[in-house]
Amino acid sequence: MLRYIAQRLLQLVPILIGISVLTFLMLHLIPGDPVILFAGDKPLTPERAAEIRHQLGLDRPLLAQYLDYAGHLARGDLGRTLRGQRPVLDSILEVFPGTAELTLAALAFAVVIGVTLGIAAALAHGTWLDTTAMTLAILGVSMPVFYSSLLMIMLFSFRLGWLPATGQGGLDRLLMPAAALGILSSAVLARLVRSSMLGVLRREYIVTARAKGLAEHVVVLRHALKNALIPTITMLGLQLGALLGGAVVTETIFSRPGIGRLAVDGILNRDVPLVQGTILVAATTYVVVNLVVDVLYAAVDPRIRYE
Amino acid sequence: MAGRSERDEHRDESASFGRVLRSWRLGRRDFLVLAGSWIGGATLAGMEPAAEGAPAPGGTLVYGLGFDLDDTMDPQVTNFDSTIRVTLNICEPLVWEPVPGRFVPGLAESWEVSPDAKTYTFKLRRGVKFHDGTPFTAEAVKFTMDRVVDPATKAGQSHDQLGPYDRTEIVDDHTVRIIMKDGYAPLLTNLNGYLGIVSPTAVKTMGAAAFARHPVGTGPFMFKEWVPKDHITLVRNPEYAWASPFFKHRGPAYLDQIVFKIIPEASVRTGTLRSGETQYVDDIDPLQYEALKRDSRIVVIEKGQPGSGFVLLLNTTSKGPISDHAVRLALEYAVDREGLNRTVFHGLNKVAWSPLMRSTFGYDPATEKIYSFNPDKAKQILDEAGWKPGPDGIRVKGGQRLTLDFPIIGRPRDKAMAESVQASARDVGIDIKVTPLERAAFYDLVKQDRYDINFMWFSYGDPDVLRTLFHSANVNAFNRARYQVPEVDRMLAQAAATTNRTQRAQLYARIQQRVLRDAVVVPLVDTITHNAKRAEVQGEYLDALASYVWLYDVQIRK
User: Fold this and answer.
1) A236 in B contact zone (CB under 8 Å)
2) DSSP of B201-221
3) Shared-domain flag, residues B370 and B498
């Protein structure tokens, strides 16, 4: 197992290099002259433009610029924000816990709702319960996050007055955004758990388990669910990417500090170092989480690590 | 940077336009006259009667801010009006501007401006202390102005606002002279915001980066806390004893604290006012306007902005048909401004006929009579100029199709406006090609002079905004009509370098008439600020720019 983990960690290195190359190139791939981005929209004299270009090192060969950038990254230096001149890393670390809290809560919501609905639908296969659960799932998949967020705010904050509409801190401010963000993933999970449960329940070892006279809940939870969850774990890692993306919208609507809003405001303010930094951190988080998922996967399914 | 508000997107625009608030300045005689009318009685239009009975000090005001700060609270570094809405409570200006073109004492008790608008002499208030305990003197004014032009500061809007700044001379501890290289009438307006006075000691000991997270000034409120993307908290300055005579009370502010909560989504921001999570919000959701007006718990605050509203600038140097005066004239008659205001702004702005918005000093009402919405007249003008309808309805002349290039920055509001103009033009046989672009690509195109039509919006406290839009020296900046008429240049320069109000107004009237008759600008709408508050909030004042809310007098009725 340890060997497997070490192997996977090694594979991280080229991926992280790839991410850093992409974020580095971002500055050069967006249309227009990067100097204009740094100078703001004020009219520029050619001399001033050349001066800024030199200050930023943009007049050096691309490879030299990248090596410089990568060197700073390796030392944990993501540069400074354009206007506030703060270390980008500080700005990110300040809001990162907010996004982590939101996405993890959304993931928890998705797992609880998705797995429950999925099992229920599979066990009640073909009945009204199955149909209802799957209709809900289709609804959840189809509903855009901003729409469900606004609906919840209108109902629970403005009409009923139960929950605050804005801000961060406390369960009451986490409930709505986590649910709004988690709905889509819960629907995806519900459909996945249902179909893999259906597949597993037809397997011969389930028949054997029942023939042994085991209680039904033991058969379902220990024999069937454990095996049905294997594909679900992989899906969790992928869903986390979707949640990080959805956090941009959720954080904006619920006025929560977070890395998604930081990135969007960075884009609006044309703060390139900040945008590069947030993308780098988000991508790295995604890769690391998927590594963890893969390791979990190997723990649950011994066949994986011996391949 | 035009930074006002209007829907959040304006702010974005603001970033691009560099707001330069300006206004004219006054001579001492003018000031004395004003002082009488302002200081004596609180007869300002829009001011509320003083609350009855004993004031109810204390409490917290939660202000829902529609747009975030741009990562700094340093008034000289920021590019955003939203930042100034917060910092103006901390770093006070030398003069306040309650109504366009009218100034009242701030940190300066009185001032004098030379007739050529080059030398501004300020008598400073005595006994004023910064939040760090250091005294406010002429040195602080010099320090603040000098840091704007110091490249190390990386100044934002303040740099434009200070204009052709030369130097500041300290006459004595409480007298200071700001000297311009050229006549610059807009300085007084510009003092009211991005040129708020900062504590030299704080900037020097903390360093600029730390100061940007914890500004120190002389204001009625002091900085307490900033949780990025969430809120900023200010607390009352208990020492405050130097309020402008413009305000209704003396001594410390009534409120214990102000919490500026950043709520970017307009519908949520507006909703929090109704649920009571906030007591004041800027830039309400236009869709909730009617409901708010009907709600007795809520007061909607509407105020026209000064400057230049949304206009089309028509490129006079283009090689395409737009250089034909008849085509430009036809556009003036063809554009359905009323329809555009309805579809894009839910009818909340006001149809415009001049490049100056109605609230600007020098606005000429006679401009409203020059053009009208008249598609038949537009067709007739094109017919007479030889532009005849082709098989697809688009007009042709000598083998040339009447097609105009209209690149825009791809934002929802800009797209909606452009499509509205496009539909109007199509009705009279003009084909407008709207191309939404990434910002940097858009600026590349503009720099290369490859466009026929351009949007412009420029919130600004002084009619000198017309120089930004129409002076030949600004052809590579915001004069996107690339309009170069020596006579207009002369009038613009003359109007900026005189202190005579009548003469200025006459000059600006002639300039407005001239650019309209040359059909280089198609005014679309004047923008109007729409804020709202809970009815129990009293005493706030929306300034001349319809952007900054003065909170010193605010009390929350129980």
Assistant:
1) no
2) HHHHHH-HHHHTTS---SSSE
3) yes
Burial class (CB in 10 A: 0-12, 13-18, 19+), B152: exposed
Kindly state whether residues B552 and B404 are assigned to the same domain. Answer: no
Distance of CA B440 to the CA centre of its chain: 24
- The reported pTM is 0.86
Q: Which of B14, B71, B78, B443 to mutate to test the interface with A (most CBs of A within 10 A)?
A: B71
Q: Where in chain A is the domain with CATH 1.10.3720.10?
A: 96-300
Give the range of the structural domain holding residue B112, as residue numbers without chain letter: 4-303+529-556
Answer whether A270 sits within 8 Å of B15, measured CB to CB.
Answer: yes
pLDDT over threshold 90, residue A300: no
Q: Touching check for A44 and chain B: CB below 8 Å?
A: no
Please, how many CA atoms are within 13 Å of residue B231, restricted to the half-sphere of its CB? Answer: 18
Total domains in chain B come to 2
Indicate which of A83, A94, A147 best probes the interface with B, i.e. most B CBs within 10 Å of its own CB.
A83
Q: What is the average pLDDT across B452-474?
A: 93
> Can you identify the CATH homologous superfamily of domain A96-300?
MetI-like (1.10.3720.10)
Tell me the per-residue pLDDT of A261-278, one tens digit each, with 9 for 90 and over.
Answer: 999 888 877 788 898 999
Same domain, B457 and B551: no
Helix axes B412-427, B8-17, angle to 10 degrees: 90
A301 Cα to chain B: minimum distance (Å): 43
- pLDDT tens profile B311-349: 999 999 999 999 999 999 999 999 999 999 999 999 999
Residues of B in contact with A42 (CB under 8 A): 18, 160, 477
Residues B299 and B421 grouped into a single domain: no
pLDDT, tens digit, 9 for 90 and up, residues B279-315: 999 999 999 999 999 999 999 999 999 999 999 999 9
Same domain, B120 and B245: yes
B541, β-bridge pairs: B550
Cβ(A164)–Cβ(A173) below 8 Å: yes
Q: What is the CATH number of the domain that holds B253?
A: 3.40.190.10
- Chain B residues with CB under 8 Å of A277 CB are none
Contact: B263, A252; criterion CB under 8 Å? no
**Which ipTM score applies to this complex?**
0.84
pLDDT of B52 > 60? The answer is: no
- Parallel, antiparallel, or unpaired: how do β-strands B453-459 and B307-314 relate? antiparallel
